[in-house]
Design a protein that fits this description.
alpha+beta; three-stranded antiparallel beta sheet
């Protein structure tokens, strides 16, 4: 298909926000940064075909940036030498920030895979049971919690709706209201699915599921979620550029990517085929060229266990490859994580915090993520040896047809190159 749909863009904002807004509102570097900071190196150890493929990928990356992605980071690690690293951006964005492959980035719902890993580690230690009810761990906090299990939360089959749909929350999502939300408060405004769904019956993505899981983790361990992430994941794996955001601030002295969204007028036009947005409903931030808004200062801390991680392409690939190669979980828990429910809207199926996605070149495992100004797709092959990350400096901006087509072409080509297959013939640079 020519444009991404929720099946490929299952991010924190995803299609649900469309409805929500209606209610209220050592690498092989191929131009690693456009200022020449990391110019292309000889592709030692790779054949001519790989060199040509990386060159085509670089062209696709620039095409995507110019077509509406605004900036893209691509990193491919095939586990057999130096990774391919590409950073490209639209010309005007260089006045804000010179994009580099190592920039910190809000990885959004990719956080769900990390949260699920922490839960399954506790399952392996017999502190949490997959068939434990939510009511057991969070008495009185989740309506119908006596019928919802930990497994249902992990697979998005709980029957819970999403707090993104509520008028109470939307001003915070768009950055128009400065408010620090507690997970308990978000669960309190979470509605039932419409129409109501019996727990365990149907897959329906909801960030509320993972807010609840974060609270269960803290209660089961006596540690904060941030402490668990550092102790169990980031410190052991040497993920020095990864942390759970607690506010809108970016650490001083560290590089980070600047993200953008369409301004209110463009956003209204973009969503006009689905909803009739009220005039002026849009994201908070300074105005930028091309009717864009700088969204880097919007607070993402509400997303917490559902999407609050900041990371880099290299760091997150390190986590995902460690996970998929069974270095973070025992075999029994990895088998549970890979046991999926049907999720056709995701382009495949959904396990325990893990997507199984069918691509033009084969099946991959991983997740996608998104927050205002930031979207990402990070996958591995079935063994966890090969991985690919594609970061994009806008989320809603790549819903526009031209941008969507170019971005999908880039993701498909990068995934195919990761798997060692030819890039799709209908996605060439010609």
């Amino acid at each position: 298909m020519s444009a991404p749909t929720p099946s490929r863009r299952h991010r924190v904002l995803r299609g649900a926000l469309t409805l929500a807004l209606a209610t209220c509102l050592g690498a092989v570097c191929v131009s690693c940064s456009d200022d020449g900071q990391d110019a292309a190196e000889p592709m030692a150890g790779r054949d001519t075909a790989d060199t040509a493929a990386a060159g085509r990928l670089s062209v696709l990356a620039q095409k995507a940036a110019d077509a509406g992605s605004l900036g893209v980071i691509v990193r491919i690690d095939r586990g057999d030498g130096k990774p391919v690293e590409i950073a490209r951006q639209a010309a005007w964005t260089k006045n804000d920030h010179r994009l580099a492959v190592g920039d910190r980035f809000r990885v959004g719902s990719n956080t769900k895979t990390l949260t699920a890993t922490l839960v399954l580690q506790q399952v392996a230690e017999k502190r949490i049971g997959l068939d434990d009810t939510v009511e057991k761990w969070l008495p009185g906090l989740v309506k119908g919690g006596e019928h919802i299990t930990v497994r249902m939360l992990l697979t998005h089959t709980s029957g819970l709706g999403d707090f993104l749909l509520t008028p109470q929350f939307l001003p915070s999502l768009t950055g128009q209201e400065q408010r620090t939300w507690k997970p308990e408060e978000l669960l309190a405004v979470t509605p039932e699915q419409d129409p109501p769904t019996v727990p365990g019956e149907k897959y329906s993505y909801s960030n509320a599921n993972y807010e609840a899981l974060g609270l269960i983790l803290e209660k089961a361990t006596g540690s904060s979620l941030a402490e668990l992430i550092e102790q169990k994941i980031t410190k052991p794996l040497g993920m020095k550029d990864s942390f759970l955001a607690t506010d809108a601030a970016w650490p001083a002295g560290k590089r980070h990517a600047t993200g953008y969204e369409p301004d209110a007028k463009r956003l209204k036009a973009l969503l006009s085929g689905t909803v009739n947005l009220p005039e002026g409903v849009g994201f908070a931030g300074s105005e930028r060229p091309g009717d864009n808004i700088d969204t880097a200062a919007i607070d993402p801390s509400w997303s917490w266990a559902a999407g609050g991680m900041v990371s880099t392409a290299r760091d997150w690939q390190r986590f995902l490859t460690a996970l998929m190669s069974s270095r973070l979980l025992p075999e029994a828990q990895m088998k549970q994580m890979r046991t999926t429910v049907a999720a056709p809207e995701e382009g495949g199926a959904y396990g325990l915090g893990l997507m199984k996605v069918d691509t033009p070149c084969g099946t991959v495992w991983g997740h996608t993520g998104g927050l205002p100004g930031y979207s990402s797709e990070i996958y591995t092959d079935a063994t966890g040896i090969r991985s690919v990350a594609v970061f994009t400096l806008t989320n809603f901006g790549i819903k526009e047809k031209k941008a969507a087509t170019a971005n999908k072409a880039l993701v498909d080509a990068a995934t195919c190159q990761m798997l060692g297959n030819p890039q799709p013939s209908n996605r060439t640079t010609a």
